[in-house]
Amino acid sequence: MDSRGPLRSALGTVSTIKTVPLNRRFVCALTGLGWVLVLTLLAVALCRLVAWDRVQVFALADAFGALLYLPAWGVGLWAALGRRWALLGVSVVVVVAQLGFSLPELTAATQLPAMAGHAPTFRLYDANVYQKNDSMAGYAAQLRELRPDLVTLEEASPTDRQQLEVRGALRTLPNFIEVTRYDSHAFLIASRYRFTAPSLSTVDGLPFLVRTSLLLPAGAVPLWVVHITAPVGPGWQLWNRQLARVCQLLRIRRPGPILLVGDFNSTWGNRWFHAILDTGLTDGASARGEPFAMTWSQMFFLLPPLIRIDHVLTGPGLEVSSIRTEPGPGSDHRALLASVAVLFGARGSGHVTGSGVAAPGQGTVPRFDTGASATVVEWHNVVRR
After folding, report:
1. pTM of the prediction?
2. Predicted local confidence at residue 357, as pLDDT
3. By CB atoms within 10 Å of each CB, which of 11, 139, 178, 281 scores lowest?
4. E strand or H helix at 137, and its extent?
5. Contacts of 34 (CB under 8 A, 6+ apart)
């Protein structure tokens, strides 16, 4: 008889006794984590329903939209496999909320109008170049390769413009508007076409919106370039006030063609962005079936951009016929390249709503802002004889 038999049997019994509690503890820990996740997401969803973007932390969470609620699917699967019905029920509620919040954007794709196929088009390049980006070499190479007709750059300082000019990136874009600052509130707009006299909107002395009209062969098209302050830290109040002002200006203008482009620092998950779309504008990326063309941030370690805060919006008479993202060299944002069809010209209508002087010109509009950096809006059109 083997004397080790009873010892082996006893050790097996001890091992079984230890294994069962360990497995149960692991299951309980995962279940507890699942409850924490779905209850947190449920709180975010409820806050959106009753106080949409009224609280800063929830406004940041809302910006992540459908992505934010994805863990509820995993928790629901875990609950279903373990027959944890209460946990499964809460997970299903969160998933239903996710679908309700996300479907408007995901189902916004429409068929491109037939007239867009033969309508005049122009190519738009938009980028937040990042104020701490010391080199414009990558952007200059992109602009020389892509040859857009209109370039709108946020956070682009006069030094950045000089770099682009030296590298020949603006050679075919002689007309420009520049908000000359050396911080995140600078703008550079360059175009093959002329502009009307620009106006600058500020909150607390900080520029966030440049308004002009682009003088296309088909007529003048209002062009608004925006850069909204990020809703973090003290910028939270500026974010609300700036977006509210954009929405107000859109509501008081007459309906008609408009191109609104730039860094909105907001998504379909945010209240003010929805309000802007509700004024009658179309999100170019969603309309072309590209709701996942994310633009921020391309600096997450091992992760692609997770949210879409840079947008090309159009009013009646204009249509984004194609849109894609491009790398933003040295920036945390990806750039946007879009083709915009001018449908009112295709219909033979010469009536375009807009303001400003439809003639070549140039000038400066001084702004005396509170803060360390004063703002000057420079405007230059090439006079063709």
Report:
1. 0.88
2. 35
3. 11
4. helix 137-146
5. 75, 78, 79, 87, 91
